[in-house]
Inverse folding.
């Protein structure tokens, strides 16, 4: 629910453009702004030119990367959906990845994923944006392809129908299967706005998606997808003169239609009084309260003050809503607020998902009380400084990569038409005063302007609320330009050939310094030359597999409690210090390991590491803090156990591992059984420097890292000896099972096939990794091809190798409408079987290798990504040389090795199947294929036992 600076806009969109000369000229860029605490956010530094056809082009060269991003931001979004066609801009976004007159269907994935890049798109209120990240030598090909789909998109009836089915599955997954999907996706915008087109759901409705036609698609493209209605942004490693020539070659010839853009500039009226609404939905585990107000559009001068107000209200554990509703009163399981500033209007909402036993009415009263405080009294200077530091530090993090920086520019352009607006945001945030916060609270967040929403579980007396249909819109289908002569895919001999890739720009892997402190703590340092950010990651050989029998959750609870009090700091004091530093600090436990992490601007990093050390060395595990964490964990479980996908993931572990340590999971029964003594004993035994690794990555030298590690951790010497880790945590291999968890009324079915897998150190790790990427890694994987692209049965399908220290958990999964659960299960099992039975070709594997190497290279470009790669090698006692050797080892995998590894380790006859959904819609068909299936009612599911009953 939280969006910051450029992310604030992520819920919003684009429309305006800049007038500029047709020659290249630097876009106005202020000097780097120095924030409080000394954080410096460099300007974006893009140059601008405008083509004769009106296309605005922004470019920024960065020779320190081996990649380049190409982004096209169209000034059309869900607000432009014609009346009776809600969700149309989003549906059209999907269709833009199909064919053009020179490019066959799915070529965009061939040009991106298959060379180690990535592509995606999103639709917001005012914009639809398309973006690719590829190795720099593929830049010309991406420019050619983007110009192709701007000028000659090809869509036929079968493609249109298939992709519309995919969007329906996305609707079911995001809106119907998620217990809070209806609230945030449908009801909140409906309640907040009176006349604005923003009141319609961006994803639309099943009914209005059905009403759309191929002719609508062609007319929509002709109307909005034109050079004078778009921004082209290119950032990365390129030659500027050559880039300009390519842009002129591919984009300058594109013509604009003579039809003007439809008028769409609705002025949202001022509320005439408070509004109140109660909505009901199935499978809502906890009631929710939302209060919201119309505020300002993105370009308004008050946006900065409202952004800082939002930070004070709900960012972090020292925020007002968290401290009051979650920590002190303990009436809410989760709080949040969202400042959503769009092109024509904006809003601010605050929410509370209530804790078990508390009502939405209590939430409304508590939210109103906190908002009243903002109106009635000034915030403190300390609160103001904390909020600013967090926002500025987050802005720095959001500019780590060329893709990040291009995205920040795109949002600013869409909402203001001014490239310099993204850089001015920092100064505007810094200029906000205590008086500004109170002024905007009194102006906008008043009871008379407020919408109050209660979201409750449906029952016999209160059936599920229905999405509002036939909502009028300023744009009508009749306003769209004529379709003209549809483009068609040319015969292969007549197509313009794709440009050939240029010379490869190889990514560089940093050298890693490796040393130990006297107490045995291993320290690894991976320096980078990017932004002034540093990441620390302290990892321990202790995870949920080490939980005592019957005490599942101790490892997770120990990690969660580290930030909840030390010998010298209370939980609120810790939260305050983290936010004062502009840092991100936390901890989490996996099955084998626990990680304590920190990320901070370089100037605040020494103080951040000192705090991190105090959390690790001196936690107190107070009983009252444990009780708070237990209550929050139980509420989290209530939410998880209402969602098919979460139920499936928790059930799969028990199906594969039974009662072995790897099979255990946090449950409503194990959480209350944990005592402060349990947690303290786990920490004393398992958190030890001799079994830990500290990784620094980012703007830090090995010498500085050594001094910092010694100062923070050098005196750490726990008593006693470390216990042995869990023996054979995976247990004995079990017979496969077919398990259905019946959840009546589920909005979708979650389908998961699972097989006992391999450890990270297995000799077949790389063949299995390449094979898994062929099976379910990425949009063009076999599973996604069969389930989404060919049949439209799911929004997405994929697989995970799931390696662990002992035998891992391989899964392949998808979500689909309940009626097709058995069909999707068949398709998943068939593709797993194929990999073990048939040798893939070199043509199959080449793009999958590139996908892995490209993803690895992109991870190297962020301090957290680099730190995670180094830490993972250390956790499994693998040599640091594997960092530089990764690409070579992936390239060395042969087709025969892939087939043999799958046949040996992941044969389909060992696969179990877990399906969670409304069994009344698929059980008969599934039982006919699997007569030995087990059916367990969702309310009877026992995750404390391998039997599940």
């Amino acid at each position: 629910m939280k969006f910051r600076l450029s992310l604030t806009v992520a819920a919003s969109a684009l429309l305006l453009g800049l007038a500029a000369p047709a020659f290249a000229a630097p876009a106005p860029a202020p000097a780097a702004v120095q924030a409080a605490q000394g954080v410096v956010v460099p300007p974006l530094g893009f140059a601008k030119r405008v083509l004769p056809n009106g296309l605005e082009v922004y470019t920024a060269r960065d020779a320190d990367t081996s990649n380049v991003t190409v982004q096209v931001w169209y000034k059309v979004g869900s607000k432009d959906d014609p009346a009776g066609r809600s969700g149309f801009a989003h549906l059209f976004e999907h269709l833009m990845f199909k064919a053009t007159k020179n490019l066959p269907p799915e070529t965009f994935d061939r040009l991106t994923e298959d060379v180690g890049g990535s592509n995606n798109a999103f639709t917001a209120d005012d914009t639809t944006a398309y973006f690719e990240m590829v190795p720099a030598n593929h830049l010309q090909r991406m420019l050619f392809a983007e110009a192709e789909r701007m000028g000659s998109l090809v869509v036929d009836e079968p493609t249109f129908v298939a992709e519309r089915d995919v969007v329906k599955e996305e609707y079911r997954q995001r809106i119907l299967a998620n217990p809070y999907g209806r609230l945030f996706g449908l009801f909140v915008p409906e309640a907040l706005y009176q006349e604005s087109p923003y009141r319609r759901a961006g994803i639309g409705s099943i009914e209005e998606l059905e009403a759309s036609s191929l002719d609508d698609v062609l007319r929509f493209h002709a109307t909005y997808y034109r050079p004078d209605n778009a921004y082209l942004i290119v950032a990365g490693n390129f030659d500027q003169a050559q880039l300009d020539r390519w842009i002129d070659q591919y984009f300058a010839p594109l013509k604009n239609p003579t039809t003007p853009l439809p008028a769409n500039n609705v002025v949202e009226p001022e509320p005439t009084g408070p509004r109140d609404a109660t909505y009901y939905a199935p499978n809502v585990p906890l009631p929710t309260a939302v209060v919201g107000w119309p505020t300002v559009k993105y370009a308004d001068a008050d946006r900065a003050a409202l952004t800082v107000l939002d930070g004070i209200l709900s960012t972090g554990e020292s925020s007002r809503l968290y401290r009051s509703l979650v920590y002190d009163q303990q009436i809410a399981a989760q709080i949040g607020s969202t400042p959503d500033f769009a092109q024509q209007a904006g809003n601010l909402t605050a929410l509370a998902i209530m804790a078990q036993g508390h009502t939405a009415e209590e939430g409304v009263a508590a939210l109103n009380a906190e908002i009243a405080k903002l109106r009635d009294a000034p915030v403190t200077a300390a609160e103001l400084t904390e909020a600013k530091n967090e926002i500025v530090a987050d802005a720095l993090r959001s500019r780590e990569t060329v893709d990040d920086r291009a995205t920040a520019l795109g949002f600013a352009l869409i909402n203001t038409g001014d490239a310099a607006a993204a850089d001015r945001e920092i100064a505007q945030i810094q200029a906000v005063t205590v008086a500004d916060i109170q002024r905007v609270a009194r102006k906008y967040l008043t009871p008379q302007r407020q919408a109050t929403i209660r979201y409750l579980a449906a029952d016999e007396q209160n059936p599920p609320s229905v999405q509002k249909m036939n909502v009028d819109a300023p744009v009508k289908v009749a306003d769209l330009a004529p379709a003209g002569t549809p483009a068609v895919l040319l015969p292969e001999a007549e197509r313009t050939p794709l440009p050939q890739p240029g010379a490869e720009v190889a990514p560089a892997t940093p050298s890693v310094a490796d040393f130990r402190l006297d107490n045995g703590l291993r320290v690894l340092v991976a320096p980078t030359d990017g932004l002034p950010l540093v990441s620390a990651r302290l990892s321990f050989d202790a995870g949920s597999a080490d939980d005592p029998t019957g005490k599942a959750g101790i490892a997770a609870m120990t990690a969660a409690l580290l930030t909840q009090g030390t010998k010298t700091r209370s939980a609120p004091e810790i939260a305050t210090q983290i936010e004062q530093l502009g840092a991100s600090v936390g901890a989490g436990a996996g099955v084998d390991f626990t990680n304590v992490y920190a990320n901070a601007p370089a100037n605040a990093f020494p103080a951040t590491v000192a705090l991190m050390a105090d959390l690790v060395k001196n936690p107190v595990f107070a009983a009252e803090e444990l009780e708070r964490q237990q209550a929050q964990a139980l509420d989290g479980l209530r939410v998880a156990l209402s969602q098919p996908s979460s139920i499936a993931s928790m059930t799969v572990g028990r199906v594969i591992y039974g009662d072995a340590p790897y099979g255990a999971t946090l449950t409503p029964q194990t959480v209350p059984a944990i005592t402060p003594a349990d947690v303290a004993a786990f920490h004393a035994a398992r958190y030890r420097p001799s079994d830990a690794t500290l990784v620094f990555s980012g703007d830090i030298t090995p010498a500085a890292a050594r001094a910092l590690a010694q100062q923070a951790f050098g005196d750490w010497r726990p008593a006693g000896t470390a216990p042995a880790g869990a023996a054979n945590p995976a247990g004995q291999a079990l017979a496969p099972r077919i398990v259905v968890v019946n959840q009546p009324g589920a909005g979708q079915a979650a389908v998961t096939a699972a097989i006992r897998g391999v450890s990270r150190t297995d000799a077949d790790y790389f063949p299995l990794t390449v094979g898994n990427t062929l099976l379910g890694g990425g949009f063009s994987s076999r599973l996604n091809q069969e389930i989404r692209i060919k049949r439209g049965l799911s929004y997405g399908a994929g697989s995970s190798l799931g390696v662990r220290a002992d035998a891992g958990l391989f899964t392949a999964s998808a979500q689909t409408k309940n009626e097709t659960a058995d069909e999707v299960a068949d398709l998943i099992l068939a593709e797993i079987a194929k990999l073990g039975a048939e040798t893939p070709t070199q043509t199959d594997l080449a793009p999958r290798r590139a996908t892995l190497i490209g993803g690895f290279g992109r991870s190297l470009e962020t301090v957290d990504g680099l730190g995670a790669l180094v830490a993972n090698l250390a956790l499994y006692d693998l040599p640091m040389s594997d960092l530089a050797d990764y690409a070579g080892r992936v390239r060395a995998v042969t087709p025969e090795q892939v087939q043999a590894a799958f046949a040996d380790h992941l044969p389909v006859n060992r696969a179990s199947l877990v399906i969670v959904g409304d069994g009344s819609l698929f059980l008969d068909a599934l039982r006919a294929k699997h007569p030995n299936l087990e059916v367990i009612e969702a309310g009877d599911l026992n995750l404390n036992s391998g039997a599940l009953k």
The first strand starts at residue 25 and ends at 26. Residues 157 and 899 are 37 Å apart (CA to CA). The chain has 31 helices and 28 strands. Residues 157-176 form the longest helix (20 residues).
